[in-house]
Batch of 2 targets.
Target 1
Amino acid sequence: MIQCKTSKAIGGMGHSKKRKEDARFIQGKGTYVDDVKLPGMLHMDIVRSPYAYAKIKNIDASKALEIPGVIAVVTGKDLEKYNLHWMPTLMSDTQMVLPTDTVMYQSQEVAAVIATDRYIARDGKEAVRVDYEPMTPIIDPFESLAPEAPVLRDDKEGKTDNHIWHWEVGDKEKTDAIFDNAEVTISQQMHIPRIHVASIETCGCVASYNKVENHLTMYMTTQAPHAIRTVIALVAGHVGLTEEKIRVISPDIGGGFGGKVPVYPGYVIAIAVSFLTGAPIKWIEDRSENLQADSFARDYHITAEMAGTKEGKILATRFKVLADHGYTDASANPSKFPTGLFSIGTGSYDYGAAYMEADAVYTNKPPGGVAYRCSFRVTEAVHAIERINDKFAKKVGKDPAQ
Amino acid sequence: MEITLTVNGTEHTVQVEPRTLLVHVIRETLSMTGTHIGCDTSSCGACTILVNGRSAKSCTLLAVQANGAEIITVEGLATTEGLHPIQEGFHLNHALHCGFCTPGVMLRAVELLEKNPNPTEEEIRWGISGNLCRCTGYNNIVKAIQWASAKMQNKELPSTEPEFV
């Protein structure tokens, strides 16, 4: 056995390097966002929709406002006055901060209660009465593409269906020709269901706007503070919060896995309320909120095919994908399209040709396709390619590893 | 309501509502933020503390239930002599990544080692099965507990250098 190890005196290669951050973590002296406490800080809790698709007929906050310690109840209509009720996603789509008339997924934010204490904020949340007119939600992406399906994003001018984008890559002609003439072809349909990152620390923030200096300090559970600052400026630049007026502090984080890249509505509501009241606003979601409303990953319906010879030589692969992105396209993916699907899908084996196409659709679900280690769809590609490789091997009577 | 708690050797008399959770008294009233809240449902164990020597999940205990109790939190593990062996073991064996679950796992391990000073790997794994680590560091957590077990019994310490395979 060869050991790649330098001498003890030199250290480095082959030696265990101790972490500098351990000292604070093992003594309980880390600073996670819920540990941040600012003078005059108020607490926010969020009223969420029990329906996946519904019209909001009325929000009655009067009972909540009677509770001593409840300062305010903020709705989409309130934010609309300042044009802060919508925000962009990283994929150039739009997402509601708080809805003015329609909720698009179960557990969507409907109103925010601001109070002096987190228990009182929760009392306030329980006391807000919302009248809904439930509608039939679309939760199946295939149904969503049917001609008779209602247009979910009717907020978008000229939108006549639920299709988001079409993407294709590879050599279709050559791939199809190989499939047409191949000795052996196999096809496999698969659904890779939604999953959630469930980092052990949920998401949250403390938004602290200083009116005198027109400056926002944002403590938040984010993996992408620079991108977040840009998004905040895009949402709130028109009220004076341009990038240089915003400082994003990402303290110790209890796990991210990509789930702490997006901008969640709770952050923006906290900023808006801090901006309007001048008080620091703390928002910490609980586990149920985290699991129901934060971004999800996967939700890919894939038909994957492989063509080859009777002897087991692989010649080509072809993918057709339907991607359920929920009610908004909020992937955290600078390439805009699932480029990993092709590069990883074709990376492990020697193909003569390959072709892949994907279509993304809207449904009544929280944002999908966002995070669990990659919006580029690397994981989906690996699963699909190995699944069809196994099936191909079985058909030609070979060991998949050969 | 008025309750009295002894936390890490110091007695505190605090006013709480009947519904106030123990974890909020520790974190907010007493400002000891080393005890974390991960799930609010006693599933994850990030809020684990010792109540009268027994590990307990403080996110589902009412503060009033702990009236008169002796509590140890992560802030109470180290002494003026230095770190507790379990803290040393976690550091030397890379048993933590984000650090959020760490205080809870360490306190659970302290109770485990008190009752069973020389646990097998299986006993350790069962022993910490109420604590989740989402960075998936269980192998090194087990090693850290084995290291602390050796240290507390003045036995030869296992190597903390990387293994070559």
Target 2
Amino acid sequence: MKYIIACLFLFSLSLTGISQTPTALKQIKGGTLAPLYGLDSGKVWVDDFQLDEFAVTNQQYLDFVEKYPEWQKSKVKSIFADGNYLVDWQGDLQLGKGMNSNSPITNVSWFAAKAYCACQDKRLPSVDEWELAAKASESNPNAEYDSLFNQRIIESYETPNTYAKTVGSTYKNFWGVSDMHGLVWEWTSDFNSVLISGESRQDGDADRNLFCAGAAITASNLRDYAAFMRYAFRGSIKADYNIRNLGFRCAKSK
Amino acid sequence: MNYQIVSKIVKILTLGTVISLAGCSGSGHENRENSMDIKTQGSMTAQLTSPPYVPEPIGSRPAKQLIVDMEIVEEEGQMANGVSYMYWTFGGTVPGSFIRTRVGDEVEFTLKNHPNNKLPHNIDLHAVTGPGGGASSSFVAPGHEITFSFKTLNPGLYVYHCATAPVGMHIANGMYGLILVEPAGGLSKVDKEFYIMQGDFYTKGKNGDPGLQPFDMQKAIDEHADYVVFNGSTNALTGDNAITAEVGETIRLYVGNGGPNLSSAFHVIGEIFDKVYVEGGSLINHNVQTTMIPAGGAAIVEFKVEAPGTLVLVDHAIFRAFNKGALGMLKVTGEENPTVYSGTIQEGIYQPEGGSIQTMPGDQGAPEAPVAGSVSERIEMGKRIYARTCLACHQEEGQGIPNAFPPLAKADYLNADVERAIGIVLHGLTGEITVNGNNYNSVMTAQTLTDEQVANVLTYVYNSWGNNGTEVTPIMVTKVKSSH
């Protein structure tokens, strides 16, 4: 924790020198949300907030590490990112072979994503915020009961190598935000909160929630397979993990 | 009085049951304690095999620390000709690699999730005693690996599968396999062993729709499978992929059912299982035709192949075999053994009496029969009916067979009375008649023909072989039928 605070302090000192073109924020109207899993069985309220139109790209992240060398591949502290951090890059300031600069950045840890957003004067969205924005289809702010939309999401989750697509190449939703599904998984600020909520089979036990049919207990919508897949994914990761299909975008409170 | 006696008997029976139950559970408990006490000697890396093959038997080896290294791969594969599917696999195959252990082994299991995979996975081994069967300790994100260990306490054939939410989808995409725990000293020796596992698949398109077919959640929930297959695809065990054996060999099949939904009525066409390890456990049944394998269950079946030929493995819920792909083949080569199976000895014509039209069931009825528009058409149609119905007895030229079947050609009996002739076709004729001076005492059965057909066939007969050229119309037939 000390490290994080120290690190954030560093960033806030150097915030003035940002040169990247920031991604446009889109306004998301708040409202109630029934999370697949949560502290209560009931709904939660999400305030209005803003969310990046696109996921952060390879090029944007390259600009970031140029500015903040402590996040370069060879210099990153191992407690903030395991051995897969930017694993496909050829060097500290060189993308991997054949990597598209407009594809979403992946193989970055939660710590790195959090630092990146902080340097933009933004933050990572919470799980609830992310889910609220993601349940919008092209035309409907709440498409959670649109079976075709859900089937499309599940299919996109099964499609391999989508991390290599460019941002903005899938669909733009009701809020004007692109690629919420079909490109990469995305980090959220409290991605692991489900596991420590004590909501499932073994109250207070850390990581026993999402297995087998036990995962059905206390889930709010048993037909939302896409959400099960997202929650399972979030439950499997730790903050220092770097995964080829996991990127992020930033948010901002209104 | 009676009541007291009965209640005494009941008490005695109850007591007996309690004692015997206690005895059973006691010995089971003992077994397990024994397994827990088995010390391991040394360590070895487990040989893992892809279906339909299984690793070497454990033989007489002692319990060991067994190192199992398994990789999870999400990859596109072929479901049927022209149809592909995004399989999620343990070890790159559906079903996953076969794991062979013996009781008392301490298995050190490493599960690796390939970095290109999109989803986290885990493994629940039904052979494991402990929370989630290993699932809670093996949850692993893409690009990571995880190690846990367990001791095999109960011998038997067990299913393993992924248990990550949504669990049904992970299983439906192929994440299952078998782990065998052999008893000390191993299973009895057989000549050939194979690994077969059934699974049901749910695709967006119908069975046979070409291209990459995504998983269909709704069909999976409704349990409407598009494919039911052995070893992950319709042709995993057919054609060049058929498993093979020689006459006289004993075969052992390790058969599992991954589900996710359907139970298997596992049957081998042309064989009887000499032995079935029921549900993969210690109970052995003999002389079994079809064995039930539930989703998430397994069975070991053994049989000796006594005759050459192709034995067909099916789910005997037979539409699954015929229409959805649950077919496999075991090709047996070697010497014919006519005592066991003769093959065809004789072939002949079978002509049942009476029937020439079969009435088919069904709402729509038979298709409309053609109606003759002229005398020549009537003769043409009558000729076909004659060939089908009359020719066997009355012969091709209407000459009949002397002393058995009277002639129709230039037949006085025929030409003398049309209505009588119609009546004979409709109702048959038994008893002595004289035709062209010869006596015949035989039986002609009633013919199941429509009025139109009777008219046609008689018109043909009357206009052939020197007969008098009468045209018989359907109305004449109807009239004869109505007169008594």
